[in-house]
Amino acid sequence: MKKIIKTNQAPAPIGPYNQAILTGNTLYISGQIALNPETMELETNELEQETKRVMENLKAILAEAGMDYENIIKTSIFISDMNNFAKINEVYGTYFNAETAPARETVEVANLPKFVNVEISAIAVKQS
After folding, report:
1. pTM of the prediction?
2. CATH classification at residue 110
3. Which of 18, 51, 67, 118 could form a disulfide with 71 if both were Cys (CB 3.0 to 4.6 A apart)?
């Protein structure tokens, strides 16, 4: 059985998908971009702020499911330019404990939704 996770603290979906799906103890979070959930405007003026907005959107979805960053077991990071990796990684790293950080991949892609610089999705597991 799947449960739809939805919060006003993260951007509403802009297509036929949900913010996250909880099935059993596993949460699958859709890719988040730097949309401000209150205004639905992009925050892309500065790469560090853009990455922070993405991470805060993920945090809001995790909280709605009763989880936090320690529950994440896997992330997928999609970036439009691998030259931006260091700046994105620096912000991303502030949200995790280095010893318990999740598995991940980082992939450069030709384009992302709304032509943003970074999109991140995650899988989290609620510890029983």
Report:
1. 0.96
2. 3.30.1330.40
3. 67
Phi, psi of 110 (to 5 degrees): -70, -40
Tell me if 75 sits within 8 A of 106, measured CB to CB: no
Contact (Cβ atoms closer than 8 angstroms) between residue 29 and residue 19: yes
- The total number of structural domains that make up the chain: 1
CA 32/CA 53 separation, integer angstroms: 9
Q: Where are the alpha helices (DSSP H) in 45-118?
A: 47-64, 85-93
Owner of token pair 């896997």: 74
User: CA 13, CA 103: separation in Å to the nearest integer?
Assistant: 25
Give the domain extent around 120. 2-125
pLDDT tens for the chain, residues 1 to 128: 899 999 999 999 989 999 999 999 999 999 999 999 999 999 999 999 999 999 999 999 999 999 999 999 999 999 999 999 999 999 999 999 999 999 999 999 999 999 999 999 999 999 87
